[in-house]
């Protein structure tokens, strides 16, 4: 199949309305769909030589219910390389985790978000590394919304955070730029939570996969009969967000004429739905995200100058994760803590070798990719800590850089052994004493004082633990 040919997704779903919804969402991204209503017919479709081979399958948990994992296993046996996207009820996250253990590639939660479906489908047809490691997890893990919980000490990141915290208190438009997965929407939500509009409406418009006509209607709404197919009146995002905040994700995807119209609305506070005879007044703060910084958007002529002027007062750029290497270790521990709170999962540690491996990767998918990699590893880990063996794709790519990264970090005390299990207390204590002796250059009185023990106790431990370099 050529890259430009429509791809096929097999929908296994007994709800006709949901089949139509998912089919229309997939069509926006260039996918065709074929639906089967039960597990037997889906397996028969996959086994038939007369049917077209799908590039992905979306399985609703309501089709097989408690036998969903068994069905996934049967699908995996019939089509070993077929990406399986599992659609779970929001009240059943444990079933979704079990589905992944049974062989599902990824899972989505109801109610369906159009941009999430498109992203999952697009990710599913890439190589194994991308398919396994790029699925967004915002719907699976509740992210904290305040600035204090945003992890990172890198100078460029802290500068962006400080600018955002200061801007949060105003009502002016804000543009947050950065590569996909850097946390732009999370930062926007934190700004809203710290703003005077924290208790007012917060509406998000994801522009990915939407046509120009749909975008205009989504923003401004339309009256019944405004255009062919407008059978009912629709309220737009601007009106829904009146008094609060509207987040426009990937604002550069808006057509230039719609950008100009939005700029006028932001300036005058007036908006007119499609097909309406009169405008209405509103009070909305607009926060927008974009992949590139404001100057580049203007230079590349993808952002209208009038709109860019409105964002010129406050634009914030989030650095990519590859420019925040020192933040990877604390981010990893933070994400593992969140993951460990999910039903069916548990709190895991991570070995120093595994951290060195994570720090050696460039992370093109940024925070979103790191979180997804850790989530998938945690699902299948049966030890107390993640090791390099839990990241086989990454090890194949950057495994030879681990010793150099570990040497550069230096001075740490390992809590976990290479097998993923905690080292003995005696081993850890010996390492701490060695570290203290080296750090304080053999000044045993200072070592004892810093460790909070007596000098005689320190000398006894040195002898008992066989530490030869104490002098």
Quick tags:
alpha/beta; Rossmann fold
How would you characterize this protein structure?
A hairpin with an 8-residue loop joins strand 11 (270-271) and strand 12 (280-281). By secondary structure, this protein is α/β, with parallel strands linked by helices. Among the domains are: 7-125, Rossmann fold (3-Layer(aba) Sandwich), CATH 3.40.50; 155-317, 3-Layer(aba) Sandwich (Rossmann fold), CATH 3.40.50.300; 425-464, Arc Repressor Mutant, subunit A, CATH 1.10.10. The protein starts with 6 loop residues before the first strand and ends in a 7-residue tail after the last helix. It is 45% helix and 13% strand. Residues 127-138 have low confidence and may be disordered. The strands form 5 sheets. It has a 5-stranded parallel beta sheet with strand order 2-1-3-4-5, with helices on both faces. A 5-stranded parallel beta sheet has the order 7-10-13-6-14. The protein is built from 22 helices and 16 strands. The protein is flat.
**Whole-Å distance between the termini?**
71 Å
Q: What is the general shape? A: flat
Mean pLDDT: 84
**Poorly predicted runs of 5 or more residues:** 127-138
CATH class of the domain at 155-317 reads Alpha Beta
Please tally the helical runs, counting DSSP H or I stretches of 4 or more residues: 22
Radius of gyration: 26 Å
**How many strand units?**
16
Largest sheet: 5 strands, parallel
The name of the CATH topology of the domain at 155-317 is Rossmann fold
Would you identify the CATH H-level superfamily of the domain at 155-317?
P-loop containing nucleotide triphosphate hydrolases
Strand order of the largest sheet: 2-1-3-4-5
Architecture per CATH nomenclature, i.e. the level-2 architecture of the domain at 155-317: 3-Layer(aba) Sandwich
The fraction of residues in strands falls at 5-15%
Classify the secondary structure makeup into a structural class.
alpha/beta
Helix content: 40-55%
């Amino acid at each position: 199949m050529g890259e430009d040919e429509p791809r096929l997704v097999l929908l296994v779903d007994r709800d006709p309305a949901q089949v139509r919804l998912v089919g229309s969402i997939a069509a926006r991204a260039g996918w065709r769909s074929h639906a089967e209503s039960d597990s037997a017919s889906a397996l028969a479709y996959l086994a038939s030589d007369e049917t077209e081979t799908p590039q992905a399958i979306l399985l609703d948990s309501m089709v097989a219910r408690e036998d969903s994992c068994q069905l996934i296993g049967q699908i995996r046996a019939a089509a070993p390389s077929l990406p399986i996207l599992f659609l779970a009820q929001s009240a059943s996250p444990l079933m979704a985790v079990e589905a992944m253990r049974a062989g599902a590639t990824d899972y989505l939660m109801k109610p369906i978000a159009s941009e999430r479906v498109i992203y999952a489908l697009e990710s599913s047809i890439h190589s194994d590394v991308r398919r396994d490691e790029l699925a967004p997890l915002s719907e699976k893990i509740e992210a904290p919304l305040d600035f204090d919980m945003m992890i990172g000490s890198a100078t460029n990141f802290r500068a962006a955070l400080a600018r955002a915290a200061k801007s949060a208190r105003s009502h002016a438009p804000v543009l947050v730029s950065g590569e996909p997965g850097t946390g732009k929407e999370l930062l926007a939500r934190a700004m809203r939570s710290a703003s005077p509009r924290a208790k007012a409406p917060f509406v998000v418009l994801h522009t990915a996969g939407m046509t120009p006509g749909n975008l205009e209607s989504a923003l401004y709404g339309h009256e019944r009969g405004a255009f062919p197919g407008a059978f009912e009146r629709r309220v737009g995002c601007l009106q829904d967000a009146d008094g609060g905040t509207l987040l426009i994700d990937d604002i550069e995807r808006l057509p230039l004429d719609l950008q100009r119209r939005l700029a006028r609305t932001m300036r005058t506070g007036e908006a007119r739905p499609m097909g309406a005879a009169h405008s209405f007044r509103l009070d909305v703060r607009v926060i927008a995200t974009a992949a590139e910084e404001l100057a580049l958007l203007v230079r590349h002529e993808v952002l209208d100058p009038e709109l860019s002027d409105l964002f010129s007062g406050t634009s914030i750029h989030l650095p990519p994760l590859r420019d925040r290497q020192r933040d990877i270790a604390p981010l990893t521990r933070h994400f593992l803590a969140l993951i460990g709170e999910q039903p069916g999962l548990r709190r895991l540690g991570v070995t120093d070798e595994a951290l060195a491996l994570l720090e050696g990767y460039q992370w093109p998918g940024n925070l979103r990719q790191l979180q997804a990699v850790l989530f998938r590893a945690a699902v299948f880990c049966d030890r107390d800590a993640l090791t390099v063996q839990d990241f086989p794709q990454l090890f194949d790519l950057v495994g030879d850089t681990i010793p150099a990264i570990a040497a550069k970090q230096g001075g740490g005390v390992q809590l976990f052994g290479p097998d993923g299990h905690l080292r003995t207390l005696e081993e850890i204590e010996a390492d701490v004493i060695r570290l203290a002796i080296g750090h304080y250059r053999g000044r045993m009185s200072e070592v004892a004082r810093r460790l909070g023990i007596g000098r005689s106790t320190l000398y006894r431990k040195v002898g008992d633990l066989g530490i030869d370099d104490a002098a």
